[in-house]
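Quick illustration, no need to memorize.
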Amino acid sequence: MSKRIGVSGSAVFAVEDGPDRTWHVEQDVPVDGQVVTLPDGREVKQVPQAELESVFTLHTVDADGVDVADADPMAGHLAAAGTVVRQLREVARDERLAVWFPSMLSEAAPEGDPNTASGALLASLGASLAGAAPDGWSELTLECEALVSRMVLTVTVTMADGAVLHWSPPPMVSQWLHRLRMRDYHPGRGVWFRARFELTPNAPVVRDVDALSPLSFMTDAEDCADELRLLPRNADSVPRWLLDAAVRSQQAGRSGYAEEPVAAARPEMVPLFDGRDETGQPSWYRPVLGAVEQQAVLEYLRSAPLVLSARGFARDELAGTDNAVPMGFHTDGQFVWSSASGYYLEKHGVPPALALVEHIRAARHRLPGTVPALALDRASALAMGRPWDEAEADVKANQALGPVESAVITHRISPRFYSVFAEREGAWCLVRDGDRYRVHRSGDPRSAVLFDDVRQAAVYLAGQLAADGPSMEYELGEEIPAWQSPLVVLSDDPPVESFAAISTVMVQNIEVDRHGGPEGNLVYVADTPFEQRGLPAEYANRPYHRYRISGDPWRVVSVVSAAGGQGYLLPKPLDEYVRSGYIEEITPTGPAHPGLPPINDGMRAAAAENPNGWVYCADPDVDPRFIDGIPLPVLLGGYKVGPDGQLTGETYINEDYRPSPRLRGYPEPRTDFELVLGYVAAGWLSHPSILPVTLDAPFLLQTDGNRGLRIGVDGNGREFLVVYSSPGFVPPNTQDIMQSTGRELAPALAGLTVIVNPGGNFGIELPGDDIMRAAGVPQQA
């Protein structure tokens, strides 16, 4: 049985893999972390990998190397008499870093006995063994064979009755052995591979170590490469068997440096020490650095960008000196460490955590050329103990787009030629690339430029758009996003953002109107039904004004409401144009009420059948196939009928009558679709009423040249399909035209907006999903 085990100080606990180089541990584990809820409903603590001193697995195996099924790695396992067991400890390597061949150092071996470890560490090992040994033990022998990533323990316990039993100890025993190796290591001599420890009650541990002999257990070449990579040493101190295995690993493909170390999605905080002893003094169990490498690591630690600084100095906890240790935090984008790390390395030889040292070695002891602003922001949040929300990156990116928006508005850049945070064919694009931002012209990889800060990228994109502006200007009638509108609403009318479609158009010799005073600049095509204007209901009670725009063509902003009403934004308030004579205010004539039709025999007959009632008259343009009965908008009025069934001469004129499409000057309908479109535009029918006739309407549309649909994308990322209801609405010189009904198009309309007759005053926008539902086309959930 085996499980992944974590160690922090004296705490031992189970760990599980988390996302982005984190571990999941139980909430009561004494390490810093954030409580998260897993998909299975469990609440656990998520901690950075660098927060833990060690993470490993333990196997208890028999003489044949088979796992002992009932062995608990956390509690240890005492084997039955006559049964041989061993304990195997394995550490997973970081595949992102374990790709380079170890270097050979030229450090001089230190003076003194290389087999003498710290007495405190050896005593701690003895205490751990004695505290966990089976009851009734009288002697204990431990044989250890070890590399950094693999360790095998063979432990025998002599009981009071003389019986000798094999024992697999709890995890902390192997951890103390690992700590011993780390502190025994020196670049000038390496460290032992085999050691024998003997312990009796109330006596110090006796040990014997071997730094040359090959290991007896099977190991792979990568374990040997890991040993030299994490504990580099003088070439004279590398046994031939270890070097040969490391070379085999290199020949198998684990060679060369990583071209660019991959930065983690979130940085990792590196602990300053590994824990504290019973007196509260800091403790550390890390391999020392050679003199040359120490200077290189020190330069790396101190030269990295500072993301959080503080005035003053902290106490040196090892020397007991006040106001000595600098306060602050540095980062290289992947790790965050205290400014004290460099201090303790220089003054006391305390190396950084092994994970950081390994990372620095993989980077050849060179800091990255630059660190992206996003990585600095994440590191700053971590240093301050503030949770980082990735949405902060999006907020910051959107706030940086001011120069782009200014260039787009000033130079009237078509949405076809720029895109932010998304690719668009044929456009200048600003997209996120990891923690950086890339600006390039789609389809031209040579144009790509990478930036550490989105603000730099935005300024660069703005410059490219300004330089190419004349060739990228949007066309008349081309839809643009609301923020790109060159004009804004000047009064308290709804803002440009409230309309469904915005474009610039030329208008000439038209009548417009508005509900509101002349201080505004928003007008509508005269006689547009109020409910189609997208105005608040109370605006219907505002003063009504009608105007005539004449003379040379005007370039204005066209706005179309969600209900289909056509409006225009003028550059200045109406009263300025009226005073200067450019616009004339006129008495509302519009399409006037046509009056009641002359009385005929049919009306007299209807009167005879309805004494004391009314004979009502509908607009003669009503087609009963599409309008049922006489709804109020099509009712002209009526004639009063007396008690004798005769017309009395009294009449009723319906003030809520809405002039017909013909009276409004709409084109003569050529299809049922255009007939119903006129009814909708006149306010006789609601917007959804057009869907049934859409299915069999013979639309004309431009293809992509291969009989495929030509799909457009507007400035807001909305995908659309342009169709025309009859040949008269197709722009001149349009090529690759085909005819298709709405029913035939329906399966391809998911998520699209169908724009009918764009650029004029006789069109409509229909959601493709609505057409699919009307056609009975199944939609994906």
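Confidence is low (pLDDT under 50) at residues 254-264.
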